[in-house]
Batch of 2 targets.
Target 1
Amino acid sequence: MSRGMMMLSLWITVLSMVSIGQAAWEPPAKVSREECVKFSQAMQSLPEIKVRQKEDIFRIHVVGMDWDLGVMVYEPEDVSKIPRGADGKKVGFFLLHGGSGDFRSMEKLALLLAGRYGYKVVSMTYPGRLYLEDPSRRWPGDTINPDGTVRTPIWKKGERITPDQVEVTLDTTKRHRYGTRTVARARPGTIFYYRMAGWPFAFEEGMKDACQRHLPAGEYSIYANGHSTGGPLIHTMLQRVSNIVGMADVEGSPFGFIYSRVNEWSGSLGKIGGVKMEAAKTDKDFSTWPDPFYELSIRSWRDIARYSGPEALGKEGAKGLMRLPMLMEEVFEEWEGEKHEPQFKAEYIITRNGVKQLREAAQVTAKRMNMNASDTEALIKRFISYTRELTGPGVKPVPPILYNIAKDSRDHSPEAYREVILPMLSAMSPPPRVCVVEYGAGVHGYTKAEKDLPLGIAPAVTKVWYDAIMSGFFTK
Amino acid sequence: MCYKNIWGGRIAFMFMLLCLLMLSAVPVRASGELPSQISREELLKTSQKILSMPKIEWKETEDIFRISEVGMDWDIGVMVYEPKDVSKIPAGADKKKVGIFLLHGGEGDWRSMENLSRLLIKTYGYKVVNMTYPGRLYLQDPNRNWPGDTYNADGTARTPIWKKDELITPDQYKVVKDVTQRNRYGTRLLAKAKKGTLFYHRMAGWPAAFETGMKEACKRHFPTNEFSIYVHGHSTGGPFVFMLSQRVPNIAGVLAIENSPFGYINEEKHAWSGSLGKIGKYERVSKKRDTRYDPFDELYLRSWRDKARYYGPELLGQEGPKALMRLPMVMEEVLEDWEKGKMEPCFKAEYLVTHNIIGSLKDAAHVTADRMGLSAMDTYKLVNRYVGYTRELSGPGAKPPSPVLFGITKDSRDHSPEVYQEVILPMFAAMNPRPKTHLVHYGAGVHGYMTEEKDLPQGVGPALIQVWHNAFMNGWFTK
């Protein structure tokens, strides 16, 4: 038997490890570390499908402004090879990155999905996050400069936010989770201010447009995925794009109104293994986001540390503190390696149910556009709706959701799902089909390499997704 | 020099009150024996009592003196604390005045021991001599604050000043990185002396200057017939005061709170935990022996990492592993602490003595002997002298090891009760003659035992000086 045939048969064996042929496939409740290693090894040893990768930058005009949006599209060179799911439609994935990055944060997953399974993948960058000034998309320098200026979004090519539009302040009200936050406040009346008020609308329209351009209804069933901060944003799409058939999640946060309850439940410091932190008495409660819509959070090494610390707790326990100098060096090194990503964030108002701020953002936008009372009210309603499911007659129900959670993820503990997220989803009318798969390895950044898992738990997660897609978990 | 006069003329009344309070403070046991454990509750009570006692007026004087050793001049500095009225220095059970000789830890200079010195002088009126290691005093400025940082963007580093106005120039060293001990230290930066330079020869000669400087400081300020001296060296200072304890005739005992032992015992202490230590109920994270081989010509440049290597384990003891859940804030605390402390010397060359690196001590002695053109016999003697710094003196004519009153705090990575029971105390018991020892375990505090914590504004300092006082007065050291 040739090496290629051997690999193929190995892959077929792996794909059939979870019984996709059964009448009623159910996702496994748990995937052990050993199984993760097995999937990873099998996947690594397979030949790759040749993938074509193309960036698509398109401009939309919403709320009276132009917005340049970018997606990276991955598909097999031979597009006829894109597989079809149980519903007979081609499989398309729509991906959104997390709170720190752009499409590059999702590249490992995108290449895994396109290069191993042959799916078409559209990986979108949030409005303003793409460094439109350079084709490499690498943001230059650091987020906070020695002269006190900070990195700001580029929502439209050639339009830069000038320092006079920004007031930089320090926030220590959430220090236990974030350390000292550097925030850039937009001065009222500036472009920055209006962009900060208008981006939620542009985000919605941009995602819808991206799906329509690359994963048209009738040809594709779309499986949506948003990592972390991308989770609540992708949840808003589940009912707004007709051919999104489900959410193939991993480490994505839920709808904003649910995620704020999760943070209330965990005191915003999360939970790792048996350790649940009480809310810090000196910190402000920020389970529902308290800060204004015109505040942009500027990330730093602290945002690496707020994941590295809990992850070290889960993986090493006490040892993490006994080697604190090295742990700190690892944080600084990781930051050095990632600071070319956007590393700023405005999305808390959606992801943490900032209804008050969304209302204000809509009002500011309406006023700028001279809207009448009725249009203003419609805009407010639209903005506020981004934090929860749509309801009422004629509304598309929330499609099936398959959550996948890593072992050491502070904000995605099994208990948070059992005690908060699943009950809130089951209270919806109609309740969506929801399952949670727990993995015996991995961290919030689920493609992160660890011993015997060069792509983290991603190979195992994508295998579960494959089974779900092919067995009709999402579509039957 | 500064003078403190806090209580004006009511001295007699205050003295009586002081005596009453001294007798009523918590760690005093009816039997006069020293406690083995002092709970946090007892520490709080003792702290309140000691800190509310009337204060004795005192004066502080810096004494910079020059010694000549191994053919070079060395400027040594001590800060001396004594009652304004020196006749008030109390006598211990042996009728000799109580003098305390202090050495700071691996990071600092005399200022690291200032809180303890002042607590001792104003509470009990002992005379205190607080010495700085050779080269650590910033002799170029009377405020002694080292300027800038330990390592600069242009590749230059902070280096010792062993003699006023003699500055080590950048051409005398190369800065190198060491990642071989990353679990404990992170990445270490080292200024490696170039052969034949002044820096190189100072790095080879300082051990002899350290010995002579300490002996000279005791002679200048604690005359043999007048004082019994009790020595204490915090952390890295510990092996040096142990070494001194048999070389100065009127040293009566060692006050070993968070004080590392003789170099050869300290080496075993670190080997016990793979140099990572142990905290409270948490298992040792390593048991793998991790022997050090630092050459004598390498100067360790400290950074925020050295704050972190204590702060991490201390948080483990105080908050448990869950402190990792607030890592961004923890890191900010480390960096803030470093910013505040970096005017201290923050460099270190003393591993050869503290970790019993015999090969490097021999190398240093040989380099010094070569420079001085010593004969084979004198070279042999110098090598033996250097090697002798890491363990107790023994044999005919050697002063027996002094009694040692050990003390350990609750959350100190390198000073766990287990390492004392399993390594340190058995090795002291094996000495010939065997010194008297006692271990007090304090139910609070960290390695920097004067560090403020909730309800303990001076850490465990007040309780430990109470224990020391009882030991002096009950004759634990001298009877």
Target 2
Amino acid sequence: MLKMTLSQATPNPLQLSLECTPGELHALVGPSGSGKTTALRTIAGLNNAETGSIECNGELWFEANEINGITTALSPAERSCGFLFQQYALFPHLSALENVCIPLYNSAPEPGKRKAQAGQWLNRMGIGELANRMPSQLSGGQQQRVALARALARSPKVLLLDEPFSAVDAPTRQGLYKTLAELRKDLNIPILLVTHDLREADLLADRITVIDQGVGLQTAAPQVLFERPRNSRVAELVGINNKFEGVFTAGKLTWNSCNQVFDVLDKGKIPPNTPVAWVIPADGISLHTKPSSSSIEADVEQISALGQIAVIQLLLNNATHTLTWEASAAEVKRLELEVGKNTHVQIDGSKIHIMPLRTINDPRRFTS
Amino acid sequence: MDTDAILLSLKLAMWTLVLILPFGVWVAHRLQKAGKSKSWIEAALALPLVLPPTVLGYYLLVGLGGKSFFGIPLVFSFAGILIASLIVNLPFAIQPIQRAFEAINPEIIEAAQVSGLSNWQIFRLIELPLAWRGITSAAVLTFAHTLGEFGVILMVGGAIPGETKTVSIAIYDRVQSFDTAGAGVLSLILLGTSLIAIAISYGVFGRQPSRSKERGI
């Protein structure tokens, strides 16, 4: 189990707590410069935070507080982390096999044994036949596999992956996803994945921590994160299209610049007349050809067909709001939707998720 | 012919190379982690490049004369010109190695750290092989520069045959005594020796360092 709490103001602000259990793949997601890589480097011991602690399997790797400064800081060599660098960072003067031998240098002093172990790792990555190639003679995907074999050869207690799939093409990426999924089952160690690709995080991770300007905003399973973002900035970062603002009072949500009022679940946490942000997932929206008492009139502004899926943009008639809705091609045909056509939108209030307003310039609000 | 002078020049160049290269590697490596003092240290090490040989020679004459820093007079001796040669060659030995260390991608060093290598192992297995070209350049420059060094050697060592009279000083002596033929022969020998020395240096050092089999990876 990896447990950490980190805090620092400079050079890059960081305020992050997370836990990662053995076998769990935990993704750190956020925009460029949000502090994801800094967090990963701090776990590996390549950076030190100003205050906080890092503990792995009960062993204290790092501890610092405001009074005593850093009291414990194991070196990167002592921490036993497998670290996969974004640009691989293979040793350019060593062959693929020798690259994988390096982490075994101290644990397997006999060169023959070391090479045999390194060869096994390369075989496991499916590149055993490339053992004698130099890094410059390998493709990006092959280099990535050598780097992964090198990261794992030391039998690390934690595997840290820094945007490992960003520099490879789509088919290679799919192959690496598969390799990672298979390794996960066998390794049973905490795996932290840094990525800015939400789809990748959704596909691979058990849990996602959204990080922005160094602050961990929310940790949740992907499904929960997409349906119930903690605040409007998280919603923005996870790419939720249908995010609006309103005023919440005792179970009633009034949509800003629109007379629409929804009955929503009141957990008693938000005071009356509080300006809020709210999101509605795709399954909370339905379109109808005929109006009903609670439907909202809208015009079809744009239809983007993507294979069997169509993304429809609707301009609500009584406001300037635009709603995005995804539907199958069959559904579009059934509703006879076309650009400019009038339709009726039904929003299911029970599916609405409301959250505090939060701006990008105010990262520390609503972080609890 | 001044065979002694030729042999003395080669001996001086060899000793300079043997002594200055390990020191150059050490200083260049340390300079990477030097803080605010780095600019001053670099400036001090580059001084022999910009100072006139007479100025440097004067300070060395004063420093190495009398009891010198080492307790015994070192001027007009081989030890004296060796010390002078080491000082004069500092920038030629350190700068190429320093540039080579600086050119190593920091992520590669970090990858070695997280791979569990100690600092010494990182230096031996990763940094030194990657900086090999820079070390080669430093060796060639130092060797060639020592063979041709004149001003400082003359100031510190004078022209004692077999002790401090290097080939470049011997050429100067021949020209002074209007023996242009002798000076021409010596110049040609110095040119050829330098060429061969550089070619051998490239041959020995220019290859990639021994592969992992010898290093035990």
